[in-house]
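Bit of a strange request maybe. I'm writing a small parser for structure token strings and I need a real example to test against, not something I typed by hand. Could someone generate the tokens for this chain?
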Amino acid sequence: MLSRNIVFTGKDQVEFVKEPVRDPGSGEVMLKARKTLISTGTEGICLSRLFEPGSHWDHWVTYPFYPGYLMVGEVVAVGLDVDQIHEGDRFGARRPHGEYVTVATSDLYAVPDGIADEDAPWFGLATIVQNGVRRAEHTLGEVVVVIGLGPDYPSLLTSRCAGGLSYVARGACHCDGCSFRLDTAVERTQNPCTCAMRPSQRALGLTVRSCLRRSTAMSPKVGR
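Reply from user aminoacidic:
Good idea to test on real output. This should exercise your parser:
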């Protein structure tokens, strides 16, 4: 079995290659991808090597590099000792952009019938956002700086509002290098506090401090 995969072979170099995929073994299944999700921020950084030498990213992105980490597919083969999963069942998995992939059943995420293929791969970004919101332990009236308004940003807004943090959303400052994303943030939160990001670390630090000062001045106070 050959799988058509997307591979980064160097900086700003992308290839579409056919590679063998192994048959599923005990406790494994083979999925045929129906949709994969492009994480524009992560994958763009990896493709163009927009990171410092010697950093975590520098050690992670080696070639050949297989981009992507969220997909939904249907089972096309099952291995030994797999008796509750059948061909045609849909599952999500944290795997790169590829046509076929062999996955342990413990790494599968069941997709309910009412969830469309286009929506199912978002489970991973939703998990990332939920972890971020919960670990930050926001409280009402706090000021938040959101750096980077990528595809997981709508989930962040939903999570904050669902958790009763409407004051936090109004007291946020949104930073991004894309004017369309900044305009969308203003529209969705009714909050005019935005900052255009610059590429350097020093400029980013100055931008964040400026945003904090502006957001603090604009943020409503608890009990007011």
